[in-house]
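With this grant's support, we have settled on a layout for protein records. A representative record follows, to show the layout.
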Amino acid sequence: MIGGIYMPFAFFYPKLSNTWSNKPNNVVSQHLEKSLSKVLTNYYPLAGKLNDNISVDCNDNGVEFFTTKINCPMSQILNDPYFDKHNLVYPKGVPGAYSYEGSLAVFQLSHFNCGGIAISMCLSHKVGDGYTLGNFMNHWATITRNPMSSEIYPISPKFDGSSYFPPTKDEDSSNVLNNNIVPERENAVSLRPPLPKNTMGNNFSLFSILTKEEKEMDLAQVVSKLRKEKEEVKQKYKHAKIEEFLPITLEQYRKANDLLVNNSCYDLYRFSSLIKFPLYDVDFGWGKPKEVISPNSTSNAPIKNIFFLMDSKNRDGVDVICSMKEQDMLAFERDEELLQFASPSS
């Protein structure tokens, strides 16, 4: 049920400080590769191979790690999301790919001529979600920073996860966006209760609401409907036995699919929340990232009509990474109602 698309995220660090400031590029690369090999023993499915698109052969085949030099300052990429070299911080051809013959997780270390670096990870959604990626990056950073750390836990042999997004900034942000796009749509939200640190994989459900008329697009009404529907789905899983999870999930998928089939004349927009994920805590020993990004906007984006909600760096707001058709994006950025809540990137 999960698409095999590769989720790309890049973590940007300014000119390295302290003991790393004068280290040659190859020393930094070797240090990261060494710690990567250690953390993979705790996330062993990522080093395996996908079999028949339904299972992972944990054959310890390893992952791909690339290094590159980008001949521009880091600021040129971070300050202009439409810069044509934006995707150079990711392994070529991997972000957003559905078919890739390489490893299930692919990494790249990019050195900028200003002395800063970017570390990117592309993870197959077949074996993990944003929660998995965030945990992996933090555990990798911890081992890099302190090889003797006791914070690393081996993953569960069951290789699954169950999750939900709490109804806080997610709802408000999604619905401010929702009010400014189309009058009717499926709203898919992952269910994420508290998880042990060793959980990875995918196990999520869907729920949907309809807003056929403009009066139903009122923010308070939409949030209320979302909360009601989400609570009903949560209760189904809360009182179910483990063996009942799959039938419940399949039923939710069927309902969502029926909604799309019966309303196929409408465009589909996807919302995915990474709020409260510790992406800005990924510290390899040279400080926390200046910026965390994913490919976005205009014609170069791997997926169209998708919105990623993330905590802002200072945790005092929400960053929304948008991917839309160019003409839709231009209109979206000029929407007067939206501009009351948000400021487009410059």
Observations:
- Residues 16 and 241 are 50 Å apart (CA to CA).
